[in-house]
């Protein structure tokens, strides 16, 4: 009995010392709350690890001594909640002048590539915006498509039709109601595989020339005082993951390839 009592005291003392040391060293995990959205396989509530990009964000924060809590919202609300500091940040976004003003912007988390999807029976080739003249291009609401699409729209070289979802654009493409649909190649393939029949998928292909190459980044709100320090720690962890091959390992395991800038 005396031996058990002594053992209990020793365990309590060890826990006390460990907790004190953890407080003094700053190693106690704190939670970073990040808004998220639906963009499989990069982001998604039902994806393993909440998506490939989320998995990289989570791992980098873990290396820096933080836990991550994700909240899933429509894209505009996701950005709003993070900008206002109601959530700590948002994953993952393109940088812009306005976002640099509102957020601490990380180093690139993941690289993505937009291409033109088109019907396989349409003879299509392009190299420069002028080559897109007179095509009907489908766009999805609230997406930023970059300079190529901005140029052809501003110069009125093409006709565009905007709908509320990527699925609707693929339906229109299969039906021949639009000619081209710019979309991230991996996300587009995922949508076709999961939401369309094999017969429908066989009607669609994509052109290898990229419409845009993106570097998606984590945003942390400037309204949250701790975020400057968090971003510094996150970037350091991200650089180490890229250096030691951990990011490449995640991408190959989840996507089968490593998207490059």
How would you describe this structure to a colleague?
- The chain is an alpha/beta fold and 261 residues long.
- The protein contains ten helices and nine strands.
- Helix 5 links the parallel strand 5 and strand 6.
- The longest helix has 24 residues.
CATH topology of the largest domain: D-Maltodextrin-Binding Protein, domain 2
Q: Rg to the nearest angstrom?
A: 23 Å
Number of helices: 10
Q: Level of helix content?
A: 40-55%
Principal-axis shape equals globular
User: What summary fits the major beta sheet?
Assistant: 7 strands, mixed
CATH architect. name of the largest domain: 3-Layer(aba) Sandwich
Instruction: Pick out the low-confidence regions.
Output: 1-26
End-to-end Cα distance, whole Å, is 66 Å
The CATH class of the largest domain turns out to be Alpha Beta
InterPro entries: Solute-binding_3/MltF_N (IPR001638)
Keywords: Signal
Pfam family, one: SBP_bac_3
Protein name: Amino acid ABC transporter substrate-binding protein (PAAT family)
Lay out the secondary structure.
Blueprint: H1 2-25, E1 30-36, H2 52-64, E2 66-72, H3 75-83, E3 89-93, H4 97-102, E4 103-119, E5 136-140, H5 147-154, E6 159-163, H6 166-175, E7 180-184, H7 185-195, H8 198-201, E8 204-206, E9 212-221, H9 227-244, H10 246-255
Parallel strand pairs: 1-2, 1-3, 5-6
Antiparallel strand pairs: 3-9, 4-7, 4-8, 4-9
Helix pairs in contact: 2-9
């Amino acid at each position: 009995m005396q031996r058990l009592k002594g053992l209990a005291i020793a365990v309590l003392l060890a826990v006390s010392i460990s907790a004190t040391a953890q407080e003094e060293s700053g190693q106690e995990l704190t939670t970073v709350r990040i808004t998220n959205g639906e963009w499989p396989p990069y982001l998604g509530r039902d994806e393993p690890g909440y998506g490939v990009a989320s998995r990289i964000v989570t791992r980098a924060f873990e290396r820096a001594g933080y836990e991550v809590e994700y909240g899933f919202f429509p894209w505009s609300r996701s950005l709003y909640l993070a900008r206002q500091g109601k959530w700590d940040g948002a994953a993952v976004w393109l940088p812009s002048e306005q976002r640099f003003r509102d957020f601490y912007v990380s180093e690139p988390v993941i690289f993505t590539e937009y291409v033109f999807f088109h019907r396989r029976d349409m003879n299509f080739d392009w190299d420069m915006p002028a080559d897109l003249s007179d095509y009907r291009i489908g766009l999805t609401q609230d997406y930023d498509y970059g300079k190529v699409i901005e140029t052809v729209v501003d110069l009125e070289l093409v006709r565009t039709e905007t709908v509320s979802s990527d699925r609707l654009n693929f339906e229109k493409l299969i039906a021949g109601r639009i000619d081209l649909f710019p979309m991230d190649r991996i996300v587009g393939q995922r949508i076709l595989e999961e939401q369309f029949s094999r017969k429908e998928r066989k009607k669609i292909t994509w052109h290898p020339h990229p419409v845009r190459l993106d570097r998606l980044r984590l945003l942390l709100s400037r309204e949250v005082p701790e975020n400057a320090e968090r971003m510094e720690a996150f970037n350091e962890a991200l650089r180490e993951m890229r250096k030691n091959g951990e990011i490449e390992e995640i991408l190959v395991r989840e996507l089968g390839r490593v998207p490059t800038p």
